[in-house]
Amino acid sequence: MGDATKLNIRIRMYRQGLGDCFLITFTHPGGLYHMLIDCGVLRGTEKAQEEMRKVVTNIAETTHSRLDLVVATHEHWDHLSGFLQARDLWDTIDVKEVWLAWTEDADPSNTFARQLRESRKQKVANLCGLVDDSQSGLDDSTRQGLTAILDFFGDPPGLDSKMTTHAALEYITAKPNGNVKYHTPGQKIEQLPGVPGVNIYVLGPPTDQKLLFKDQPSAKHSEIYELNGAMTLAERFFTAVDGTEAAEQACEDGASCFPFHKKYRVELADAQNDRFCIANYFGKDTSMAWRKIDGDWLDAANELALALDSDTNNTSLALAIELVDSGKVLLFPGDAQVGNWLSWQNLMWSAKDKDGQPREVTARALLNQTVFYKVGHHGSHNATLSELGLELMSRDLVAMIPVNKAMAQRQGPKDADGKPRGWNMPFPSLLSRLKKKTRGRVIQLDDGVPERVIQFDDGDTDIKPLSEAEWEQFKAVIGEGPDNLYIDYTINDA
Amino acid sequence: MTSESVYQPYHNQRLNNQKSADVAPPVFRRLRGYAFDPSLSTQMETAVVNEIVFKVPWERNLRRGPVGEYLEVVDFDPASRCFYAPVNLNDPYVLAQDGLEPCEGGPQFHQQMVYAVAMTTIHNFERALGRWALWSPPKYDPRGDAKSVNYVKRLRIYPHAFRGANAYYSPQKKALLFGYFPASSNDPGNHVPGGTVFTCLSHDIVAHETTHALLDGMHRRFIEATHPDSLAFHEAFADIVALFQHFTFPEVLRQQIAKTRGNLAQQSLLGELAQEFGQATGRYGALRDAIGHINPETKQWESLIPEPNEYQTVFEPHKRGAILVAAVFDAFLSIYKSRVEDLLRIATSGTGILPAGALHPDLVNRLADEAAKSARHVLHACIRALDYCPPVDITFGDYLRAIITADYDLVPDDYRRYRIAFIEAFRRRGIYPQDIRILSVDSLRWEVVRAEDYRELFLPIAQQLLIAFTEQARYFTKREKVYKKTNEICAELHTLIKNTLKQADYHANVTKPDRLVTGLVLTKDNPHLSATQLEQFKHDEDGNPLFEVHALRSAQRVGPDGDVLNQLIISLTQQRTVPIDGTDHKMTFRGGCTLILDLKTFRVQYCIMKSIVDDQRLERQKKYVRNRLGSSLQATYFNRYCDEEIAEPFALLHREL
């Protein structure tokens, strides 16, 4: 263990709200290296702009307006909003390099990526249109649920505003004057210029279509939404919403979007005067209202929205930062879901160990050495794989969850009494498992510095909580920012 | 028939006033449809067996729609903003041709097919149970007016309800909703790429959904997910009915037996459910294969080797349900094999090796007969077992015990060893009832009620009431009457029981200190009840926990030896509201018992119970509810714990495929 390469890494989680913003500072013998992973907060957060400006001001101060690397994991508002909300501040910050996933590559040769992005854009536009259309027959609960999911994309396209995820990505991509890298997993091991002894492995997003669209941990290859199938279904779905003649002609492959020929259709206007329809569906009063299905078909909209959200999450750029000397690994998977995690199993790299000897590195080995885990998707269930993920991580694990529970509770469709159902973040049993795995060292964005855990939720006595001394050691490497602006965790590579 | 319908010899009839020769209405209405899925009509090999004629019981007043006694088909397509004209099945041209010609492009045929398959399923149920099928009463829906409706006469069917690769039963609307969707462009199977696939044209899907509705009508608590087996059971049972219903089509049976040379364990159309559904969305082979599947890599069919620990490790409802379906199918195969042993011995002259090439048609017919018989027996056994299930919290183990007990009661002499076949099949899959480690007919049969427990079962006091009910029930001609009268009797029984509880010596003489016979705690000073538990109940004016006379059904069955079994089945239930630790949600915990009363001796034979104060069961349910729905984004964004909050449980369940 040479001390010539003594490395010190400080991970700063900004506490702006439900969103990711992590500043990682590497202190090495030659100086400092600053890396920023995402910068955003959920749409609808109170004083979002103000909060993000505070954050960006601090970033500027800490880095002396010079960021060596900015990583934008995926196209969701709660990871990108800060670039637009504090645009003027960003204008004064120098960004040397930007990393994105291969799915964001605008190069015309990358057709699949382009298709993905276009399809995503189209679906967002369609869903927004559906939500805004007061005639669409959506009930309030569905509308609220959809709106909440669509908030992940920033302002709806209809508003023609500049505050969209697309605009944010464009902005940050333009900053480093062309020094933008689009990463594909399993290829070369990245190095940080000037920082010795650090390897960065790109784990995801997978290039395999099947895994890219997989958000369920089921054994069968259950891709209900293969790219083409989903587009066709979505097309037909939205044509239905539109209902006009033009829409009917619009389907690409010439096949009609209606299941039967026009001659069979009895339009609603005529049906409302028809004896059979009145007797069996509309009824003379409200006594038959409970059997109607006017809005049920729109449940498909929910499905599409969820699929859209999960597919976008799955395109997250997932990085594992390895400190070669000690072998410690920091895992930043963005919001990667099951398919993304599973794809890591097949990856292998040829690296050199600290003495220069060649070695093979697998994702599994990286997970085994993970001492820091940025919990994906604000602690939701889908974004942390258990057996092939969390359970493999090391005993010294520390986790950070960028979640604001109060904010999560206010989201989602409202109940009959107007109370919102809330989003299930962090997922209780995942949180419980994280606490056990880290022996209490879970730092939640809204809670700040954690309390020592003396006993675990379910009374499990197999796992011993940390002793007072160990806890003091842990607290010693945690720092807090003024006014709850951020919380720091420092790792000494020794 | 009118009262003047006396046959008169022709020479006495005057031509002007001649009434048409009094012909009795037909017993069946013949309707053409697909035996499987339309996709098979485009293949030479299977086209000939795919179109069959369903024989549906004749309904006198069948109106356009069709709208009859049990069903109303309303063809509203909200996504296309239109209706489709209702078919008139009494049109002479339609009647003369055994219904409309099968055709995917005409909605009227879809209405006919949906009606035919649903009615066939209902008919099979009624035959097995020996009583009319009733739909479950509407749940209270805060958004609508459902609670003012008490009796639901007809199940509604929407053949083109939405655009999606799904179909489901809506307990709230008492309706079946069928979706349609474009066939996958990349891997459409036998469909035109981009063509439309209609779930309402798949026999299996329609039978499956109708069975959900029928099961819900019998056991309305079974849709509450309290155990990993709950939803899996609903799915599995619906699959079992769809699967075995196919075996009642003789033409198909013969063709398949000829093709598999009598060995039904190989892949056959009959063993594959919802074939079209799976094909169209790009997966070769059918969605839920009971006995085998197409390996997605090699595209070859492989049989499913039972794994004894699957039941302990697999929790996803469809996969778990598939274990039960596979077990029942396995039992069927054993039964079929034992039935055809002698035929094969004769056909092969003892060598056991069938001649190469096609089988002799006589042999095929005999094998088909035996297969049909075996299937009918298994189907009826599975349906009858429903009466022997506890009223809440069903598990596969309970269901096995129910099958064995129901069969034991009806067929005391099991010389063909059907019960052994079932036990073995379940054992191979590691399905053991709670606390039973030795699987034998004796240990699996529900315990017969001990004489000393009779008083706690309220039967002596209820005797008069129940006898009167049974007498009356014989003469009801309308389903609605049965429904309403049953509810009245349940109410009276409830009052009777309450009054009995008020007797001063009730606890001293009746309640046993060591066990809770009915699984219910009916009085506030019951020794099995703690103070905290008492608070979780709703109380009546005396402070006693509320209870419900959940169901009352009569069953008449005839055994193979001609013995008639006349039974009355009574269910009593209770509920507690229990907090879920670690959250501020509450959940409903239920308990109760099913009493099987033999009307010949007027003795309660069995009391199949789930105790309301069983802490172990409560912990299991809490753990399950906490972790449920965790594996989908639905759970993250549409945070739901309790079933009362889920609007369409089956839609969600089917979407998680």
TL;DR?
Chain A is α/β, with parallel strands linked by helices and 494 residues long. Chain A has 17 helices and 20 strands. In chain A, the strands form 4 sheets. Chain A has an 8-stranded mixed sheet.
Question: If you had to describe this structure to a student in words, what would you say it looks like?
Answer:
The complex is a heterodimer of chains A (494) and B (657). Chain A has 17 helices and 20 strands. In chain A, strand 12 and strand 13 form a beta hairpin. The longest helix of chain A has 22 residues. Chain A has a domain of 136 residues. In chain A, helix 2 crosses helix 6 and helix 5 packs parallel to helix 12. An eight-stranded mixed sheet of chain A has the order 8-7-5-3-2-1-20-19. Chain A is of the alpha/beta class and 494 residues long. The two termini of chain B are 50 Å apart. The longest helix of chain B has 32 residues. In chain B, strand 14 and strand 15 form a beta hairpin. Chain B is α+β, with helices and mostly antiparallel strands. Chain B has three domains: 191 residues, Elastase, domain 1; 149 residues, no CATH class; 177 residues, no CATH class.
